[in-house]
Amino acid sequence: MAKKRVKRRKLKRKSFLFLFLIIILIVILLLFLDNLKITSINVSGNTLYSEWEIIKKAGLEDYPSTLRNLSGTIENKLEKDPYIKNAEVTKSFFTNVKIEIEENLPLFYYVPERRTILADKSKTKDNFPVPTVINYIPDKLYTVFLKKLESIDYLIIERISEIKYDPNDVDEERFLLTMNDGNYAYLTLHTFEKINSYLDIIKEFNNKKGILYLDSGEYFKVLE
After folding, report:
1. What gap in Å lies between CA 103 and CA 117, rounded to an integer?
2. How far apart are CA 196 and CA 155, in angstroms?
3. What is the pLDDT of residues 108-158, one digit of tens each?
């Protein structure tokens, strides 16, 4: 009977030593990971903010510990910004960080409300290089107008100086766009996406200034 007790004690000691060794290894691993810093950061999808501004907003400007900056933690920091709709952070090899940004872009400055309107319909007093909507748009058209403008290439939006709601006897959904280059464009809510081809269209007219009619048909009237 005495021999069996000795064996049991030896087994308990071996189990305890094995468990202790595992704990030590885990602690060493955690300490190693805690000291493992982020080595590279790639940012995409950003328009309003530079890559460095996104990195600073994420709290990664000093390339800190990767363990203390998990993907979800970085995403939460970025999504607190009112101009960032969504942030998706992924890591490769544990230290390489990739940040994909979906921005809540400012679309236009709305004179009737003296506010800049963002893609999510929120409003801000901040100023941006966006078109100025100079007059009131009826409520029944406003939401559709916002969605249509959101679908336009942002490089084109930045080329629009003013937007005027300009209905006529034929179409109550008609708008007049004044472009930064001195041209004008007529559109309706049904044809709004055509403005995405603006640069290709005006190339055909050798830098002449005029009115682009995209509300009914597609033709360019040169202004003398």
Report:
1. 13
2. 9
3. 999 999 999 999 999 999 999 999 999 999 999 999 999 999 999 999 999
Q: How far is it, in rounded angstroms, from Cα 184 to Cα 171?
A: 18
| Total domains, the chain | 2
Distances in Å between the alpha carbon of 206 and those of 55, 179, 202? Answer: 42, 16, 7
Q: Among 73, 103, 133, identify where a domain stops.
A: 103
CATH of the domain at 145: 3.40.50.10960
Q: What pLDDT digit, counting tens, does each position of 145-164 carry?
A: 999 999 999 999 999 999 99
pTM of the model: 0.80
Whether residues 65 and 135 fall in one domain:
no
What tokens does 144 get? 């559709």
Contact at 8 Å (CB) between 99 and 74? yes
Cα three-residue angle 182-126-114, rounded to 5 degrees: 70
Domain boundary among 85, 103, 121: 103
By the 8 A CB rule, do 108 and 117 touch?
yes
Q: Are residues 112 and 214 in the same domain?
A: yes
